[in-house]
Amino acid sequence: MDPKLLDILVCPLCKSPLLYRKPENELICKADRLAFPIRDGIPIMLEDEARRLPVEEEISR
């Protein structure tokens, strides 16, 4: 994932910064506990495509 792109992408719902999880190939919004997938190098920033993170799943930087 391009670091410059990561600097400008925010959560489409709350506008919070996103964390990049390389192993899962996801962008994480801590505030909304959503994981947005990255497919073929393209972040899919749609709420319907995001995975809800369970409360027990730790979100770390």
**CATH architecture descriptor text:** Single Sheet
CATH top level label:
Mainly Beta
H and E string: HEEEEE
* Poorly predicted ranges: none
What is the oligomeric state here?
single chain
Tell me the helix content: under 10%
Overall radius of gyration: 11 Å
Mean pLDDT: 93
Number of domains: 1
Spatial separation of the terminal alpha carbons:
16 Å
General shape = globular
Structural description of this entry:
- The chain has 1 helix and 5 strands.
- Strands 1, 2, 3, 4 and 5 form a 5-stranded antiparallel sheet that branches.
- Helix content is 10%, strand content 28%.
Topology:
Blueprint: H1 3-8, E1 19-21, E2 26-29, E3 34-39, E4 42-43, E5 51-52
Antiparallel strand pairs: 1-2, 2-3, 3-4, 3-5
How would you briefly describe this protein structure?
It comes from Nitrosospira multiformis (strain ATCC 25196 / NCIMB 11849 / C 71). The chain is mainly beta.
What are the salient characteristics of this protein?
single chain, 61 residues, N-terminal domain of TfIIb, 5-stranded antiparallel beta sheet
